[in-house]
Amino acid sequence: MMGVDYQQLECILRVKLTMDNRRGFSTSTKKTDSSNQLLLQSFVYAIIGVFIGILIDSMDHTFTAYTMVFSMIMVMIAMLMISEFSVVLIDTRDNAILLSRPINSRTMTMAKLLHIAIYLLHLSLSLSIASLFFTVIDYGIVAGFLFLFMVFLSTLFTLFLTNLFYLGLMRFVNGEKLKDIMVYFQIGMAIIFMGAYQLLPRLIEVNDLYNSQIKVEWFTYLIPSCWFAGSITALTTSVYSLSSILFVLLALFVPLVSLWLIIKYLSPKFSQRLSQMDAVASKPEKRKTQKAHRLRYSDKLAQLLTQSSVERTSFKMIWKMSGRERKFKQTAFPAFGYIFVFIALMVVKDFGNEDKIASLLASKRYLLFIYFIIFAAFAVCMNIIYSDEPKSSWFYSSMPISKPGDILSGTIKALLAKYVWPLYVIIGGPILYFWSYKALPDLLYALVSITVITSFVTVMQSKALPFSKERLSQDSGDNFIKGILMMISAGLIGLTHWGLTYIEYGVMLGLPIMLAFQYLSFRYIKRINWKQIED
C-alpha cells in the first residue's frame, strides 16, 4: 500500500542489522570480530539504566522522579544516537550497491526509518528496563504499560530533535567536517560522563535530591520530560487536574506530530542532504588561507625544535596527520578532559571554605595539577603508533633513511609541541597566577621532567613508527601492564620533585640535571636503528 517492495526491504534490513551486530562501540580502541555486539551494548545500557531507575523507588515526589528519569533517558538516547549511531547513519558507502539496483526511493527511505526505529527500540528498552521494573513494583502493571508507551513517545520526540540536529549541521558543513564534529561529540560525551560520575556525587547531597520537588510553573509545559512524567503521575495519583490533562495531551500529540514531520519532510530532506554532503565543500579561499597559516606555524616550530631533515619532515607529518586521524583523536583526546576533572575533584571539596582555600594556596598541591599532564602525554604518544590502515606505512622502508630514530624523535617533539606543552601553559598559567612567582622554578622543572619521562617511556614501551601498527594488534593485558609502569614512573618523578622542594634551592639545582637527562633521552632515541624497530 505504501509502494514499498517488502522482499527488498527485508533484505536491506537483514544486512544492516547484521553489520550493526558486528560493529563495536564507537569509543572502542580495539576492533573485534564478535557477532553479538548488540547484546553486549544492551547489557551495558541496562546497567546504566539501573542507576536511572533507582530514582523511582528512592524519591518521594512521583512527578519529580519521573521527570528526572525521562530527562536522563532522552538525553542518553540523543547522545548515544549522535555518538554511537552516527557512524552508520551518515555512512554513504552502501549507495554504491543500492543506487545501482532497481530499488525505489520509498523502499530505501522505509529501510532507513525501520533501521533507526529498531536501533532506538533496542536502545530505549535497554535503558528503561530497570525503570519499568521499579514502576511495576511501586505502581502496578497498568502503570508499567503506560511507562513503556511514554518511553516510546519520548523516543519518537528525541528522534525528531536528533534529526533537526543533523540537518542543522548538514546545512553548514560537508561530510568530512560532519564526521569530525561527531568525533568531538564522542570525546565530549566521554568527558561529561567521567565528570558527572566523579563530581555529581560530591556536589549533590543525596537527602536533598531524594526530597526535592519540581513545582508546575508555566515554563514546565515547555520541558518535554515533564509531559511524560505528568501523564504517569496522573495515573498513579488518580489526580486529573488541568495541568495533568495538558501534560497528557502534549505527551500524546507532540511526538505523533513530530513522527509525521519526520516521515513527510525531515527523512527525505535528510536523505537528500546525505547524498549531497560529500559534494559540498568549503570556500577554497578560506581553506587555503587557514592551511597556509597552519603550515607557517608548524614550519617555524619544526625549524626551532629539530635538527636533521628527516626529523623535521617527521615533525611536520605528525603535526598534520595527528589532526586528521579521527580514531587517534577519539582514543587520545578524552585524557585531556579527564585531567581537568581530576583537578576539579581536588579543588571542589575546598571550594567555599576560606580556611581550606588558604591552606591549599600555602601548600605545594599544585605539583599534582601540573604532573597530571603526564597522563595526556602518555595517551597521545601511546596511540600515535596505531592506525586503521597500517599498510600505508610502507613508505618508511622505501625511503633512504639510515636512522629511524630521527622519525621517532620528530614524532615525540611534534606531539609535545602540539598537545602537551599547550596543555602545560593552560594549567601552568592559573598556577602562576594563584601561587605567584614562587611557583616558577617548580613549573620549569616540571616542564623538563614531563618532557623527559614522556620521551623515555614512549620509546621503551614500543619502538614502533607512527601509524604503523594495526589496532587489532593491541593487547589489553600488555597495555594494562604498561599503564601501571607509566603511572609508577610518573609517581616517582613527581615524588622526586616534591622531595626537592624541601631542600633549599633543591629544584634549581635539580633543573640542570633534568636538562641533561632530556638531552640524553633524545640522543638515545636518535640512535635507534632499523633492527630495533617493531614490525
UniProtKB/TrEMBL annotation:
Keyword tags: Membrane, Transmembrane, Transmembrane helix
Signal sequence segment: none
Bilayer-spanning residue ranges: 38-56, 68-92, 113-137, 143-169, 181-200, 239-263, 331-348, 368-386, 419-437, 443-460, 505-522
Protein name as it appears in the record: Uncharacterized protein
Organism (species): Ancylomarina euxinus
Organism placement in taxonomy: Bacteria, Pseudomonadati, Bacteroidota, Bacteroidia, Marinilabiliales
